[in-house]
Amino acid sequence: MINSNFRKKMADSWFSYLQIQICKSFELLENNKLQFTKRDWQKNNFKEGGGTSYLMTGGKIFDKVGVNKSTVSGTFPKKFRSKILGAEKKGTYWASGVSVVAHMKNPKIPALHFNTRFIVTSKEWFGGGMDATPSHEDPRESKIIHGELKKICIQNKKNYKKYKKWCDEYFYLPHRNEARGIGGIFFDYETKDWIKNFKFVRELGLAFIDISNKVINRKKSFKYSKKDKEKQLFKRGRYVEFNLLYDRGTKFGLNSGGNIDSILMSLPPEAKWK
């Protein structure tokens, strides 16, 4: 039987490893001519953990991409405890995870989002997912993304239809009555069979790297117009609205004493509204 502390160490180590692999892969897409800037942060003088943020801007591929990893602990504010599984009474928690948001220079390439996390309260569970937000419809691209995610789910005996539906429902802007993007998969509260869930989370992380490369390499040379760029900027506005109004990760970070700059890393460098 693997005890809780060992499970925490395993998850924490994996997320650190994955963060570096994603950064290396993205730097390679920039032909190693542009590198991430690293910034460490701490929570309560490291008494409650901290994290590392990698940020890269102004590239030929990436307009802005952030790859964050954190491992933190503490006590949730009382008003927030009822929203977190297992935190209703004491409110104590431990959480580790990696989060990626990539906003592309070329508007023909979709914005990509990925995160996986392991959270411990009086319960333990994995959560996360991957989704894409294009500003231009591309059925072939959608087929590639959803096909790869479906394959990972099937290989790990996960319910792809459930995860896809959850993603579609989660990344939705009710005030606009529209989806944020084309979806992907989203899952949370995976509490049973830690070993199998950890395997799924690891394979999903590696699949994200592979899917990102396929999507970007297919379109990195596509030409685009000023009108295409305008359309991308308006779509980014929707991205901002969702992340500030509805995103669980944003709310979790703000209510757990996380680093503000890392939490808001998901926001694009430029956006527009009509």
Question: In words, what does this structure look like?
Answer:
- The chain has 274 residues and is of the alpha+beta class.
- It has a single domain, classed as oxygen-dependent coproporphyrinogen oxidase.
- Helix content is 42%, strand content 27%.
- It is built from eight helices and nine strands.
- The protein has helices at residues 4-29, 78-81, 139-155, 160-170, 194-219, 226-245, 248-255, 260-263, and strands spanning 37-42, 49-57, 62-75, 92-104, 111-120, 124-133, 172-173, 178-179, 183-190.
- The strands form two sheets. The chain has a seven-stranded antiparallel sheet with strand order 1-2-3-4-5-6-9.
- A hairpin with a 4-residue loop joins strand 2 (49-57) and strand 3.
- The longest helix is centred in the N-terminal third of the chain and has 26 residues, at 4-29.
Q: What's the SSE blueprint?
A:
Elements: H1 4-29, E1 37-42, E2 49-57, E3 62-75, H2 78-81, E4 92-104, E5 111-120, E6 124-133, H3 139-155, H4 160-170, E7 172-173, E8 178-179, E9 183-190, H5 194-219, H6 226-245, H7 248-255, H8 260-263
Antiparallel strand pairs: 1-2, 2-3, 3-4, 4-5, 5-6, 6-9, 7-8
Helix pairs in contact: 1-5, 3-5
Rg computed from alpha carbons, rounded to a whole number of angstroms: 18 Å
Low-confidence stretches: none
CATH superfamily: Coproporphyrinogen III oxidase, aerobic
Shape: globular
Structural category is alpha+beta
Task: State which percent range the strand residues make up.
Answer: 25-35%
Mean pLDDT: 94
Number of domains: 1
CATH class category name? Alpha Beta
Order of helices and strands: HEEEHEEEHHEEEHHHH
